[in-house]
């Protein structure tokens, strides 16, 4: 379970994550699938992404600064062009030095911005620097600043984090708040699922009667929950002509650590007004999931055989099949085949 999804857009950061003041202004560090990445913004406002390791002595570029020639390493002042990763300056060199800076390069990554979200194209080919074959995903309302922004770092492989996120049966046991649901409120549910681009969706439906938090929105909410590779979950809630978008990105750092970023975007006035209270609940959910991951790790270190059941774990099965088919498509050059077929799943929660 050390495999990661390649040749796809990963959530990199929010535009507001890029600092505007200080020595490292315009630079931000993330780790994706074992690669430290420096995301930055040039003086003209355009965004770049490059490997966050100087090839000289391994100092992170994100601790350096931007100059007219590119990113300057904080250790010895080496400068690298943000377009192609080529070294443009080595201050220690004398005029008669035989060293050719332009032959020294660092990996760069295609990067794109949709609204407030910065996306990074992560290719299996470390030399890839061309135009990705498809654009990053688009979502409504992301051109506005999120009203709730939270995140946690989980001590687990990304597969366990993703499966935990889409698991419909753990709520009454892990998230036992009076304002959400409890074991006493469990009942049988039936939800229609449909294939979506690089994933699947719980089709638009009215929230379950034991999901009390939705009642705060008033009216008759309709929600659609979508998952797509590599680890993007969205819940699109409509109440009349107003919308709430819950956006969650599950991003692997390495084989044993995963970062979750949860954002809420909305044009719903009441949701905005209640966002400080709702943020408290969202933070509680993520940290409860983190606590359960730590408990789960106590068993996983013994390498047990795990099982997935129908129908409660069908989404987890789909996730593994999606990953497998995506990897096969990249290896063979053949079109990706979505294994998900429209069906109704039933479980109790």
UniProtKB/TrEMBL annotation:
CDD domains: Rieske_RO_Alpha_N (cd03469). Gene3D superfamilies: Naphthalene 1,2-dioxygenase Alpha Subunit, Chain A, domain 1, Rieske [2Fe-2S] iron-sulphur domain. Keywords: 2Fe-2S, Iron, Iron-sulfur, Metal-binding, Oxidoreductase. Signal peptide: none annotated. It comes from the Bacteria. PROSITE patterns: RIESKE. Residues 9-120 form the Rieske domain. Coiled coil: none annotated. InterPro entries: Cholesterol_7-desaturase, Rieske_2Fe-2S, Rieske_2Fe-2S_sf, VanA_C_cat. PANTHER family: 3-KETOSTEROID-9-ALPHA-MONOOXYGENASE, OXYGENASE COMPONENT, IRON-SULFUR DOMAIN CONTAINING PROTEIN. This is (2Fe-2S) ferredoxin.
